Amino acid sequence: MPAHLDPWERRLLADPDLLGDLAFALGGPFHVMYPARVGQNIRAFRAAFAHAGVHGVIYYGKKANKAACVARACAEHGAGVDVASVGELTAALAQGVRGDELMVTGPAKADELLWLAARHGALIAVDDLGELERLARLASTDEPARVLIRVLPAASASRFGMTSGETDAAVALCGAHGSIRLEGFSFHLSGYDAVARADLAGELIARCLHARTLGHPATTVSIGGGFGVDYVPAEAAMAFTAGVGRQWFHSGKSFDSYYPYHFPVPGAAMLAQILDHADLAGRLRDNAVRLAIEPGRALLAHAGCTVFRVQGSKIRHAHGEPYRLLTVDGTSLSLSEQWFDSEYLPDPVLWPARPGAATPTSVGAATCLDSDMLSWRRVPLPRPAEVGDLLIYPNTAGYQMDSNESAFHELPIPPKVVLHDAPGERFRWTRDGN
To answer: Ranges for the Orn/DAP/Arg decarboxylase 2 N-terminal domain (predicted)?
Structure first.
């Protein structure tokens, strides 16, 4: 499952010294962030909006990665940030994101978060009627709280959002409180279905029009996130799906499902597909409704990687054939798929590159848990890995690198290194400010 590598990643891997120097200086596993790629992703989403002639706004789903450099890239490239806690809100402000560029989401938000969000003029996606009542008391009629009503999609089993009846009641509550300004409606869908998102967005345009007849501005529809990321080539994904079985994994491990690591219409291309379906773009333009999106993983696509050092190596056998079982200096908490009973499939890259014979290799962590494996699958590394070599897992910035990390065994959380372009195709680096 060879990963798509960005030009900056190829430059990093080709540098004869930088990765080794970073590993020496940091003394353990670390993450590498390249925020310039976040800027490229923001520009791609903006271009999709512009091509469709739609007023669009981007809110980065901050839960996907805590790195300060990502919030700074959003501030520098005109994207907002979607936050769900006081900590996330203040971290975004600290990186230059303005209060009115924030969207605040999450269920039954604490009074402190609601007050702070209203104070800064953030757009608040309200999840239930009780939360709306509390917000009305916390906000001021002089500066009404800006609100989206989060709608529960039909037939959804999600615990988030309001039913149709609750949504009607919420609209009425907004009309009864001068401290609330109803700016529109939002939803979130699981999965990656562009048509379903376009259809539900169309329904919320109709809700906006009805709300306007009641005196509300209602000019925004947010369709949330769920924009796919393309990690590996189609051929590799098809070959994996056709042949996968316990025989490919250490200890005969199996998984019920995997993230769709090949995604043919990723990121901004998926947004274009949504806007094109049933002329959603035309309906947005004709009714003066702006479309908000909340990408997390897709805004981080190809913007980071994770580096481990090989600490040990054993030979094991499966079906009469030998394979390597490595131990690296980190844990699978830094590859979050493992903690959702799945596998992170893009192949790690072995550094430095040297000649050798292809070697099936599974990768274990430096903990006392037999189940703590970074790669159960026997990955075909290009040569036998040696102690001191580095394994670079590509494209881990979206959710993988820190959503489940902890100081298990009192091991430190891996630091984040931020790469900056320098003259002569060089990189300079700093540690992330988070």
So the answer is: 40-298
Long-range contacts of 167-174 (CB under 8 A, 24+ apart): 167/207, 169/129, 170/126, 170/129, 170/132, 171/211, 171/214, 171/216, 173/129, 173/132, 173/133, 173/136, 174/132, 174/147, 174/149, 174/216
Spell out where 75-159 has E strands: 80-83, 102-104, 123-126, 145-150
Burial of residue 240, with CB atoms counted within 10 A of its CB: 0-12 exposed, 13-18 middle, 19 or more buried: middle
Name every residue whose Cβ is closer than 8 Å to that of residue 178 and which is 6 or more positions away in sequence.
Answer: 141, 144
Task: Specify whether the CB–CB gap between 187 and 204 falls below 8 A.
Answer: yes
Nearest residue to 282 (alpha-carbon basis) of 57, 58, 55: 55
The residue written with tokens 């014979």 in the block is 357
User: Taking Cα atoms as reference points, which of 78, 79, 65 lies closest to residue 34?
Assistant: 65
Strand partners for 326: 313, 363
Helix (H, G, I), strand (E, B) or coil at 220: strand
Tokens 């978060």: give the residue: 113
Phi-psi region of 121 (alpha: psi -120 to 50; beta: other; left: phi over 0): left
Residue of 404, 315, 306, 323 lying closest to 359 (CA atoms): 323
Cβ distance 335 to 393 under 8 Å?
Answer: yes
Residue (of 115, 71, 50) closest to 299 by Cα position: 71
Select from 303, 307, 302 the least CA-distant residue to 26: 307
Using only the alpha carbons of the chain, give its radius of gyration.
23
Bridge partners, 125 (sequence order) = 148
Alpha-carbon gap, residue 394 to 32, rounded angstroms: 10
**Tokens at residue 397, please?**
């910035």
What are the pLDDT tens digits along the chain (434 aa)? 999 999 999 999 999 999 999 999 999 999 999 999 999 999 999 999 999 999 999 999 999 999 999 999 999 999 999 999 999 999 999 999 999 999 999 999 999 999 999 999 999 999 999 999 999 999 999 999 999 999 999 989 999 999 999 999 999 999 999 999 999 999 999 999 999 999 999 999 999 999 999 999 999 999 999 999 999 999 999 999 999 999 999 999 999 999 999 999 999 999 999 999 999 999 999 999 999 999 999 999 999 999 999 999 999 999 999 999 999 999 999 999 877 889 999 999 999 999 999 999 999 999 999 999 999 999 999 999 999 999 999 999 999 999 889 888 888 999 999 999 999 889 999 999 98
Residues 102 and 364: their CA atoms lie apart, in Å, by 40
Q: Are 13 and 19 in contact (CB under 8 A)?
A: yes
Please answer whether residues 290 and 219 qualify as being in contact, where contact means their C-beta atoms are separated by less than 8 angstroms.
Answer: yes
